[in-house]
Amino acid sequence: MQVIGLTPYLVVASTLFCLGVFCVLTRRNSIGILIGVELMLNAANVNIVAFSRYVGDPVGGQIFAILVILLAASEAVIFLGLLMAVYQRFDTIEVDKVSLLKDEVPGDDAHERA
Amino acid sequence: MDAMLQALVFYIFAALTLGGAVLAAFSRKLVYSVFSLLLTFIGVAGLYVFLSADFLAAVQVLLYAGGILVLMVFGIMLTHRIADVTLETQFTHLKTGAIIAGSLWLSLLFFLSLARWPLLQKVPAYGPTTRAIGMGFMGDYLVPFEYSSVVLLVVVLGAATLVRKEVD
Q1: Beta strands in chain B (DSSP E)
Q2: In this predicted complex, what is the ipTM?
Q3: Residue A72 in contact with partner chain B when CB distance is under 8 A
Q4: B1-89, what's its fold?
């Protein structure tokens, strides 16, 4: 028996996605951005599984969702690796303070004069 | 009566998901954000159960709630000094973000209200899916399965390369 149709899932997923977009656009800390990306991936997953159940081929959609979860986990690992590297060099992970190229020295404002 | 109960549980899970997401997006402290993400992940796992995706719900709880969340907490602990207890996160470009996300949301809801999907006449009954997923991974979806193992290998190597100390 099925009382809930397709549309409630789509509404939940689109709201989740837009909250993720807002989070990515407004956070200054890069872990906040990672949180937003995870929200968006979850929203996409809910959409995929809901469509696969109500429009056809449930197994294909669930396999796709498992692959998305795998990529999300890999992405989180790489993201935190980058975070460690950035923190070692800049002592902060706020994205608008990380603005130097490879061989520039922090504190040297040569890039601002140029 | 049964239908009402089912709808009630669905809306509880949906509210859990969205409430957690709202807290994660808007709370000023990063640690609160990460922990309210837990609510979202558990709510999404509940939605998966409603969509007859039992294996996926288990994977969601294990990998997201158990793995990614712990990773994020580690990230916070390793990149903030113990001394700054506040761990506050400031927002930037609040107005632009709100306009973009809000207009995206409204347009999504608008098109959802217009759309007509080619729905199945009869939605399949609830049942276990683990066997079908395993057969799928060993059959039709063998290539993505093998590629995902390559992706995992590259991720392990890449993470180790990124965080290692520079040795001359």
Answers
A1: none
A2: 0.89
A3: yes
A4: Four Helix Bundle (Hemerythrin (Met), subunit A) (1.20.120)
Instruction: Give whole-number Cα distances, B117 to A51, A64, B121, B150, B168, in Å.
Output: 9, 20, 12, 36, 60
Q: Which one of B53, B71, B109 has the shortest CB-CB distance to A77?
A: B71
Nearest-by-CA chain B residue for A93: B79
Residues in A closer than 8 angstroms to B74, CB to CB, are 80
* Residue A72 domain flag: yes
DSSP string over B64-76: IIIIIHHHHHHHH
Domain ranges of chain B: 1-89, 129-168
CA distance A27 to chain B (A): 5
* Lowest-confidence region among A96-110, B111-125, B127-141: A96-110
Quote helix, strand, coil % in chain B, to nearest 5.
75, 0, 25
pLDDT at B84: 57
Touching check for A59 and chain B: CB below 8 Å?
yes
Partner residue opposite A81 with nearest CB, options B18, B21, B159: B159
Residue numbers of the domain that contains A28:
7-97
**Cβ within 8 Å, pair B112-A10:** yes
Say how many domains are in chain A: 1
Predicted confidence band at B46 (pLDDT cuts at 50, 70, 90)?
Answer: very high
